[in-house]
Design a protein that fits this description.
heterodimer; A: alpha/beta; Rossmann fold; 10-stranded mixed β-sheet; 11 helices; 34% helix; 25% strand; globular; B: mainly alpha; MetI-like fold; 14 helices; 0% strand; disordered N terminus; MetI-like (chain B); transmembrane helix (chain B)
């Protein structure tokens, strides 16, 4: 249950401002791909184009193709809602729904769409998703309590559980650990390693050690200067990017010389 | 030795006989400090001075209160400045001015409550609550005054009228107002239409209530003939006044729902209208509910638009689509202005005050209801 993503000649705009220019990238199914690069280089913007969340921002639009197993997400007639139910997303800050219990948060993708689900199926889905997010043992006794009462790391894992409960093909993660402490970060990194068995995972991170730890392939984005578009500089096996990068800018970045 | 730690030494050095007595050193960070009794002392002093000052020009409670307040504010800030420094002095001045403003704002409220309770309570009884003015004439009032029997006639019809007209105006304006606010926040995106709507909502906020009443009368005159006066016309007039308030408060509440929640729902493959209906509105519902209640409280006491739209009735009318209707404000207005018995006005005035008390109680119950709704719907906290 996972699909590959191929991006061809993608330009990302905010109204008329070109934010990310000419990206070509192939993301393998059942792999972890990390996007690294300095702040403002467009990695998060680019990530949001992969499930059509970019156009939620007023003025956001793209040119080019994003193929999910060969199907273009941006073809006219494609419903962004269908795209998003296949490509899930975890955000930088944990954002469980404050009006819902832990259980309802996990079931949000099902319930908000008014899909009928039997009680036993719902319970099974909640347990499976929470186990999948390594959260089951911590919350199994308080499933009916509000999700906002959990710690930050638990909330983020709850958001991951919520995402995998809708059984997507791909999971996008936008700096999922940047608001978390090292122990919660470790829990999520372990989780990413497990998620790889079932899903295609794409993760944006500021933390290069994290990219090195969790990802199979790494893409380095960079920006020439303020007001210039971000570009994909280099995309290769993670080991190559960190030990033997092909581009000078990548080497400077991963060795800490700038950024 | 660190100057910060000196004040942590035992207060009485004699308790530790092994050590030589240490003179307690003043903390370098601390400044002079007024003793705890200083402020109450200043307050008592200003009370005495205020009383003395106001007696000079003939004692009155008003001058006494004003003199006391001025003397207290000036004295407390000056003394604080002298003892504790300029910053503390300014703090004391601002704090006491704020308290004074608060007390000033409280005076009319307390006065209104006291007067209405004092004059209204004698008129409140089950007869008043559950009987209309049907059949009550000047002769009835004259008889009850001459015989010393309880005043007959009540406000039941007006309570029913107030509740029905307010209910119908809420039924009209809450959906219209909420949907407008949803359009403005979720769909309008500050486009020309949204900006136009916002402008006209602002204009509507400033419409005088009598104009709203005349608008409703004119509208129904065109639709149903010039004598169309009934509850629903009044409800339309009131909803003209309610809609802008509902739009404004709902808009503000929807705006503070974090965008992250909308994005979280979109990322789960939830449609926009479902996201609005099941995530955005539930998150904001407590604020929306209190906004709607405030809007109702604003229109429930309107008199002028009711007079020109629903007329006045002495009998019970539960049909908003036919015949004239009374509400509590128009009931009060007519009881005071044209007493039922021109020679014995006391029964009418008693009924007016009792109705005023009822109206205040109704608004208060509404507000409590809104708080209840707000706390029931509020996002749950706790673990």
């Amino acid at each position: 249950m996972s699909k590959r993503i191929d991006v061809k000649d993608l330009n990302v705009y905010y109204t008329n401002f070109l934010a990310v220019e000419d990206v070509n990238i192939e993301i393998e199914a059942k792999s972890v791909t990390a996007f690294i690069g300095p702040s403002g280089c467009g990695k998060s913007t680019f990530l949001r184009t992969l499930n059509r969340m970019h156009e939620v921002i007023p003025g956001g639009r793209v040119e080019g193709e994003v193929l999910l197993d060969g199907d273009n997400l941006y073809e006219s007639g494609v419903d962004p809602v269908t795209v998003r139910s296949q490509i899930g997303m975890v955000f930088q800050r944990p954002n469980p729904f404050p009006t819902m219990s832990i259980k309802d948060n996990v079931l949000a993708g099902v319930k908000l769409n008014n899909k009928k689900i039997s009680r036993s199926d719902a319970d099974a889905l909640v347990e499976k998703s929470l186990r999948g997010a390594n959260l089951w043992n911590e919350v199994k006794d308080r499933l009916d309590k509000p999700g906002s009462g959990l710690s930050g790391g638990q909330q983020q894992r709850l958001c991951i559980a919520r995402t995998i409960a809708v059984k997507p093909q791909v999971i996008l993660m936008d700096e999922p650990c940047s608001a978390l402490d090292p122990i919660s970060t470790l829990a999520i990194e372990d989780l990413i390693n497990e998620l790889k068995n079932e899903f295609t995972v794409v993760i944006v991170t500021h933390n290069m050690q994290q990219a090195a730890r969790v990802s199979d392939k790494t893409a380095f984005f960079n920006i020439a200067g303020t007001g210039k578009p971000g570009k994909l500089i280099e995309y290769a096996e993670t080991a190559t990017i960190f030990s033997n990068p092909g581009v000078k800018a990548t080497e400077d970045y991963v060795s800490g010389r700038f950024g | 030795m660190n100057t910060l730690t000196t004040n942590k030494l035992p207060k009485n050095p004699r308790q530790q006989p092994g050590r030589p007595p240490v003179a307690r050193k003043r903390n370098a960070l601390s400044k002079g400090h007024l003793p705890r009794w200083a402020l109450p002392g200043i307050a008592v002093g200003s009370l005495i001075l205020g009383a003395a000052g106001s007696t000079l020009g003939g004692f009155s409670v008003v001058t006494f209160a004003i003199y006391t307040a001025i003397i207290f504010v000036v004295a407390s800030s000056t003394i604080t400045t002298l003892v504790e420094g300029a910053r503390r002095g300014k703090n004391a001045l601002a704090t006491h001015l704020v308290y004074a403003a608060f007390l000033l704002a409280l005076i009319p409220l307390a006065s209104v409550l006291y007067t209405v309770l004092e004059k209204g309570l004698p008129g409140i009884n089950t007869h008043f609550l559950f009987h209309s003015m049907n059949g009550i004439t000047g002769a009835t009032d004259n008889a009850s005054v001459e015989d010393g029997t309880p005043v007959l006639g009540g406000a039941y019809h007006a309570v029913i009228g107030t509740l029905l007209i307010t209910l119908w105006s809420s039924l009209i304006s809450v959906p219209v107002g909420m949907l407008t606010a949803i359009y403005l926040v979720e769909y309008g995106k500050n486009g020309p239409l949204a900006r136009g709507i916002t402008f006209f909502v602002d204009v509507m906020t400033g419409i005088p209530s009598i104009v709203a009443g005349l608008f409703a009368t004119a509208l129904f005159a065109v639709l149903m003939g010039p004598t169309a006066r009934m509850g629903i016309v009044a409800a339309v007039a009131l909803s003209v006044l309610m809609i802008p308030t509902v739009v404004r408060s709902t808009e503000e509440m929807l705006k503070i729902v974090p965008n992250e929640l909308r994005e979280a729902a979109y990322a789960l493959g939830v449609r926009k209208w479902r996201t609005i209906a099941k995530v955005v509105i539930p998150t904001a519902i407590s604020g929306i509910a209190s906004g709607v209640t405030l809007a109702i409280a604003r229109v429930i006491g309107e008199t002028a638009p009711i007079l020109v739209t629903a007329g006045l009735a002495n009998n019970i009318n539960v049909n908003v689509f036919g015949n004239w209707m009374a509400t509590l404000p128009t009931f009060i207005y007519y009881q005071i202005l044209t007493p039922t018995s021109p020679t014995n006005v006391d029964p009418s005035i008693q009924r007016a005050w009792a109705a005023a008390l009822l109206l205040i109680v109704m608004v208060m119950v509404l507000n409590l209801g809104a708080r209840l709704i707000a706390s029931l719907f509020a996002p749950k906290k706790g673990r």
